Amino acid sequence: MLTLDDLLIIQGDFRLSAEFSLPTGSAVAVLGPSGAGKSTLLSVIGGFFAPRSGRVLWQGNDITDVAPAKRPAAHLFQDNNLFPHMTAAQNIALGIKPNLRLSVEDKRAVQDAFEATGLSGLGDRSPSQLSGGQQSRVALARVLVQRHPLVLLDEPFSALGPAMRKEMTTLAREVGAKTGATMLMVSHDLADAQAFADHVVWVADGVAHAPRTWAQVEADPPTGYRDYVGH
Ligand SMILES: Nc1ncnc2c1ncn2[C@@H]1O[C@H](COP(=O)(O)OP(=O)(O)OP(=O)(O)O)[C@@H](O)[C@H]1O
User: Fold this and answer.
1) CA-based angle 217:179:91, to the nearest 5?
2) Distance of alpha carbon 211 from alpha carbon 231, whole angstroms
3) pTM of the model
4) DSSP code of 209?
5) Of all protein residues, whose CA lies closest to atom 31 belonging to ligand 1?
6) CB distance 43 to ligand 1 below 6 Å
7) Which of 31, 97, 164, 178 is spaced 20 to 30 Å from 12 by Cα?
8) Residue 218's pLDDT is what?
9) What is the pLDDT of residues 159-212, one digit of tens each?
C-alpha cells in the first residue's frame, strides 16, 4: 500500500496537501486542471522533490527521505529519456544495470520486456531509427525490466496520436496487472484515463483527493470535475 500521510507540498506560492492510501496493485488516474500539482505529486512520490511536511510510506515503511534510485518506484515521463547514442536494447538494459554488465538472467528479462512490448527484432536500432510509438515502447520496456512495485507515469504517451496512445495505455495497464504493480498515471485524456485506471485521484484547489472509483466520481463529482471533463 502507498500511503501519503498528512503530506504538505510547497513550491513557491503553490501549496498542495494529500492524505490517502492506495491499495497495492491498483491503477490510478491522476486528473485535474493544468497547474493543479499532478506532476508535483508524482515527483514527491518518486523522491525528486521533498514535501514540506508529512510522510510517504510504502508497505508501511517511511520512504520520505529515501533517494529516488533507492525507492521501489519506476517512472516514465513524456520525453521518454532515451539515450540517443545507445541501442534500444541498451536503453532497456540500463533499467537493470546502469553499467550494462548483464547476467544471463538479466538478458532474459530484457528479452521478455522486448516481447511484452512488441519490440522483437528492433533491439539494435538507436532511438532515432525508431518511430515515436516504438520509442515509447522502449521507455515502457525499461520501466518493466526494473520490476518495481510502484510505477509512476506522467503523461507518458501524450506525444502520440490517439490510436497509439490508447494502445500504449492498454499495454501499460496489462503489464501492470501481470506484475501486480501499483500504478499512477497523470493524463489529460479522459478516455485514456478510463481505459487505464480503476480509481481516480482528483487534484484541484490545493488538494490531491483520496482515490475514488469512476462510478463514485460520476455519482458525486468533485468541484470543477464536470467543467474539466466537459460534460
Ligand atoms: N520550480 C517551481 N517553482 C515554483 N513553482 C513551481 C515550480 N514548478 C512548478 N511550479 C508550480 O507548481 C504548480 C503545480 O505544477 P505541476 O506541474 O505539478 O502541475 P500539473 O497539474 O502537473 O500541470 P499540467 O497539467 O499543466 O502539467 C503550478 O502552479 C506551477 O506553476
Assistant:
1) 105
2) 21
3) 0.90
4) P
5) 35
6) no
7) 31
8) 94
9) 788 888 888 899 889 888 888 999 999 998 999 999 999 999 999 999 999 999
Determine the Cα–Cα distance for residues 184 and 196; give it in Å rounded to an integer.
Answer: 10
Q: Would you call 89 exposed, middle or buried from its count of C-beta atoms within 10 A (0-12, 13-18, 19+)?
A: buried
Return the ligand 1 atom nearest residue 203 CA: 21
Atom of ligand 1 nearest to the CA of 43: 18
**pLDDT, tens digit, 9 for 90 and up, residues 58-100:** 999 999 999 988 999 998 887 767 888 999 999 999 888 878 8
Residue 145 scores a pLDDT above 90 = no
| DSSP strand pairing (199-204 vs 207-208) | antiparallel
Q: Is 201 in the pocket of ligand 1 (CB under 6 A)?
A: no
Q: How many Å lie between the centroid of ligand 1 and the Cα of residue 49?
A: 12
Nearest alpha-carbon partner for 1 in 25, 33, 18: 25
Q: What is the pLDDT of residue 167?
A: 86
> Is the distance from the beta carbon of residue 12 to the nearest atom of ligand 1 less than 6 Å?
yes
Q: Which residues pair with 53 in a beta bridge?
A: 8
Kindly compute the dihedral angle of the four CA atoms of residues 213, 218, 223, 226, in this order, to the nearest 10 degrees.
130
User: Which atom of ligand 1 lies at the shortest distance from residue 12's CA?
Assistant: 4
Listed ranges 51-55, 129-133, 190-194, 221-225; the one with the highest mean pLDDT = 51-55
What is the C-alpha to C-alpha distance for residues 66 and 44, in angstroms, rounded to an integer? 11
Question: Is the CB–ligand 1 distance for residue 38 below 6 Å?
Answer: yes
